[in-house]
Amino acid sequence: MTERNLGKLVKTDKDQRSPVSPEKRKRIDPIEQAIEAALSPGSFISYNAAWSFVDDVQDVASDVGKIIEKEPERAAKLYETFIAACHEKADEIDDSSGNFGMLVQDLFRGWINARQAANQDPDETARYLFSWMEDDPYGFCHDLHREAVKVLDRKGLEAFIHRIRSKFESSLTEDHKEKGPPGYARRRWSGGLKTLLAAQRNVEAYIALCAQTELETTDCQAIAEMYRNRRRPEDAFSWVERGLEIARSDRGKSYEEYKLRELRRALLVKLGRPEDALRSAWNEFEAYPSTFTYKELT
User: Fold this and answer.
1) Beta bridge partner(s), residue 93
2) Shortest CA distance to 143 belongs to which of 105, 180, 112, 106?
3) pTM greater than the 0.85 cutoff
4) What phi and psi, each to the nearest 5 degrees, are found at residue 45?
5) Are 67 and 29 in contact (CB under 8 A)?
6) Taking a C-beta distance cutoff of 8 angstroms, is the pair 40, 32 a contact?
7) Based on CB atoms within 10 Å of each CB, which residue in 23, 103, 208, 286 is the most buried?
8) What is the pLDDT of residues 106-142, one digit of tens each?
């Protein structure tokens, strides 16, 4: 299995230009045959047909998920084949709805679960994930780090963090060699690393990383949430205030600012200042009357 492709789609009679012998067909995993049949290689899937097509492919993906518990190694190999096959299919489907891309994200999560169930090397898992992220012609792995953190166990998360951190650190000195706009690689890998550190609840490492990048309102919210989970409301509150200060320097109101204000009121109650929380909610309702701000008063 190569890092670049991680599995090949089963060749059909048409691809091989010769019949597949019954003996060889028997050796092919039946789910692998179902993957090939569902993806229908060689036929273009229009936008109108894509919805039902993805539903059929999802049924096969569900069959792979059902064998993880009893046959995790087999499931992992099937997911690898499935992911490679979806890359082959990407040029043959109008995925304007994004459903096909979301299905591939499900496959990545299933693959991680299968490898972990099989107790396979977490460093190797991280290496493959990183390889997919670097070679991503169809954008299936644009937010792979966000999907991976949902299922990675402790060792897997540590291995993935190590690999992404190495790439981020190299981007600090080699960003000019990367493709894309200046600073793109640094922003990309720092964003991925922040997501992973937040999932790990490593607030110290997150703050240290922010010292190397531009501090944003989303960073302040993430740090405040981590301190809140550690039952340190005073520290959480100070980061919320810092985030709101950044937000006020931007034009207009943002969703991040709304979430920070909501978190601020919750922390005020935690800190024994419910009157201040109510006053804040009332001021916001007066400034921006809506059903959302009214709910904060009830």
Assistant:
1) 45
2) 105
3) no
4) -105, 115
5) no
6) no
7) 103
8) 999 999 999 999 999 999 999 999 999 999 999 999 8
User: From CA 198, how far away is CA 26, in angstroms rounded?
Assistant: 47
If asked whether residues 128 and 105 sit together in one domain, one would say no
263, 221 in Cβ contact below 8 A? yes
Instruction: Please identify, among 162, 181, 214, the residue that sits at the C-terminal boundary of a domain.
Output: 214
Q: Which pLDDT value is given to residue 7?
A: 40
CB of 130 closer than 8 Å to CB of 152: no
17 pLDDT exceeds 50? no
pLDDT score at 9:
39
If one counts the domains in the chain, the total is 3
Domain end (from 92, 120, 148)? 120
Do 157 and 75 lie in one domain? The reply is: no
- Helix (H) or strand (E) segment spanning residue 70: none
For the stretch 230-239, pLDDT in tens is: 999 999 999 9
Are both 194 and 231 inside the same structural domain? no
| Residue 92 domain boundaries | 1-120
77 and 182 belong to one structural domain = no
102 and 128 both lie in a single domain: no
Name 154's Cβ contacts closer than 8 Å, sequence gap at least 6: none
Q: Rounded to whole angstroms, how far apart are CA atoms 186 and 119?
A: 32
Torsion of CA 44, 63, 114, 23, to 10 degrees: -80
CATH of the domain at 278: 1.25.40
249 and 237 in one domain?
yes
Q: What is the DSSP string of 250-286?
A: SSS--HHHHHHHHHHHHHHHHTT-HHHHHHHHHHHHH
- DSSP code at position 213: S
Provide the token pair at 250. Answer: 């931007």
For the chain, the helix, strand and coil percentages under 3-state DSSP, each to the nearest 5:
70, 0, 30
Task: Tell me the per-residue pLDDT of 67-95, one tens digit each, with 9 for 90 and over.
Answer: 999 999 999 999 999 999 999 999 999 99
